[in-house]
Structures are given as structure tokens and as C-alpha cells.
Amino acid sequence: MTRTAFVGAILLVVAVPALASEPVVVFNSNGGFLELTLKHEGKAIEAIVELRDEKGVPILGETENGEATIPLPAGDSFIVELKIGERTADPIRLYRTATGVEPSRVLLSYGLRPCCRSKLKREPIIAGAPDPQPEIDDAGWWDWRLGLAALVGVLLASVVALRLAFSGSNHG
Amino acid sequence: MDKPAAKTPTANASVSEKMAILAPLIVIGLIVIGVAVVLGYRAFRTTAPPQRDLAKEAEAALARQNFRPLSEPLQTLLADAKYEPIPTQAHSLLLQSGPDFTLKDVEGKDRSLADYLKTGPVVLVFYYGYHCDHCVSQLFAINKDMEKFRELGVHVVAVSADSIELTRERYKQYGAFKFPVLSDAGNKIAEKYETYTPATEALMHGTYVISRQGKVVWTNRGETPFTENRTLIHKVAEIEGRLAKKAGGT
What we know:
The structure holds two protein chains of two kinds. Chain A is α+β, with helices and mostly antiparallel strands.
């Protein structure tokens, strides 16, 4: 990939749709170096970059204005790890190809590796079972209160009515 | 002619006595009726909850994400040089062979990745299951654009741990999808594609584009279903050589 093409690729990062809410990194190999550009919603962001070859030997670097140039590790593939602030993105394995490195554009993700996933609460589903219902709020409690209030009202009204009937028959 | 008997104090007293006996009975009766009404209302509420419509809820979930079906013809979409697809995420399977699988579809027939790949690339979707709006919303999104996927010659295959019976039941309730939905009991295949972690029982939505050669060329995982169908179509068109090559391909 030529430098012009790389610049073009960088420009494309800016236009990534809104769904890509995490930073996007663009890679290019050039003369034995890995060039990377890191942007989030079009703005350059800084990161500490660690490259590791297939034996795990690290090479450290950091971005400046969202860009870094780091010597390419040996081997057909290597790992790129980006630490942005306190967050370390999921490692990216890059493969050397005849034209550069692949993948050349990656949407960063966090904590998606099997080692790092937390438990998701999920109820088992059985065929034939009723659909799960939305959580019931405290409306039931209010139903009871309304019911009781209505009951008390009816009782009071009955007592008054009876009392009136009583007094009417006494004086009739 | 006899005069009608005038009411005597004794008769009034008799009425008062009757009322004195009737009054508490009437009050008790009213209490019983009141309690019965309240209990009946409660019982009705608990045994007949409002019916859910998962299909409608899934559509509403898509609307909340501002999902719009692709309205332009496929050729117009592919010719749009300004469109930038969402890049792939990192994944240990990226640019590696997608693990093969054989799973049953709703008719109980065995379906394998290798068989699908004989006739075209595959968009493989791991969804949570047909039991909540966002769990299944990606399937509704793909269903709306399925003609575009077909036109491109790509197979869309959806996988979840739902049993065949459950999927059949949902099909009866809400209609079938236009693509195969396979049953991955115990999330065994989801585990191979790293959308399920048995140790933590963590499940993710996952979308994979797999080339005819069986190589995973694009992935997206997360707790939100991926509904940007245009990116999937763009990626498939790219690997099928139906896009003009651009800088920064993958």
C-alpha cells in the first residue's frame, strides 16, 4: 500500500458510521515499520502501543496526534495491543501479506475475549412455556390499597344508609 | 266499615328489631361482596397477563436503533463509493478458517457450514434466542433486507441455543424467517466462535462474514445486535469481487 493510499485510508476512518462508537485503528506496513492511526469519531486519540511477535517478544511505542510508527516484529503474524487511558483494547492479530498487513482497519473492542467476559443473566427457555413477562412493578400494592379504600367506602355508605333507614322507620 | 289499623308502638318496635338483625347481615354481605370483587380482580390480573408480541417488540427495538431497510437497488448500493462500512473487530478467528458445524434446522434437517460454502459465502449470526426483543431483533433486520443478500448470492444462517420446537412455535406465532435458523444445543458452536463462554455462561451477539474459502473475513460481537446490513453486504461484495477495490480494504 502506498503512502497516498494510507492517507486515503486515514481519511476514511473519519467517515465511519455512527454505529462504530469505539475507536478505529488503521494499519499500514511501510519499509519495515508498522504505521498506525487511531481515531475516535474523527478525532485523533493517544494510546500506548505494544507489538508482540509470535514468541511474545514485545516492542513498545506510543501515538502522537493519534499516529505511531513502530518497527514491525518478525514472523508472519503479530499482536497489537492498545492501551487508551486506563482501558486496554482486545488484542489484534495482524498478518503480513504481499501488500501490507491485514486487517487494515479494526473497530476496537473491550473485554470480548472468552477470558474476560462477565456472566449474562438469562433465563432458560422451554418450548411450550409461556412467554417471559415483563417485570411487575409495585402497581399490585396500589391495587390492594384502592380495593381496601373502596371497601371501606362501601361499608361507611352502607352504615349511613342503614342508619337513615333505621331512623326513618322509627319516626314513620 | 272497619278503619285500617293504625301503626302501634309495638309494630314500630318490631320493625326496629328486624332492622337491627338485618343491618349486621347486610354489612357482612357487603364485606363479603367487596372482598370477592377485590380477590377476583387480583386473580384475573395474575392469570391473564397482557399478551406479549415478540415480533412487534423486536420491530420496536429496531425502530429505537433507527434501523431502516435498504431501499436502494443492490447495484446502487455497491456503486456508492462514499459509503464506509463498519470495520471488523479483532477476533482470534479473523482471517482463519471458520470452525465447521452441522446443526439441525427447524425441520430437523442437518445443515453444515461446509455445505453452504459450496454455493456462496456465509453471513453467520449468533443471536440470544427468540425470547426477548433485542435478542432476536437482528434476525428481523436481516429478514427485511434478505432480497439484497439473496441477490448477492450469500447465505444467511442464524444460530442460537433455542430448541427446534421453540423456533417452530415462534414461527407459528410470528411467521418464519427467510433464512435458516439452526439449533445449537448447549451453545457448543457459539463457544467455538467465541460468542459463548461456558465458564462464565457469558453470551454475546455475534456476526461473521465467511468467504467461500471458509475464511472468517469480518466479525462483530457484543451485547448489542449488529443491524448495519449494508456493512455486511458491502463486505460480501468486496470478497466476491463485486466492489471496486479501495484503499484500506478490510
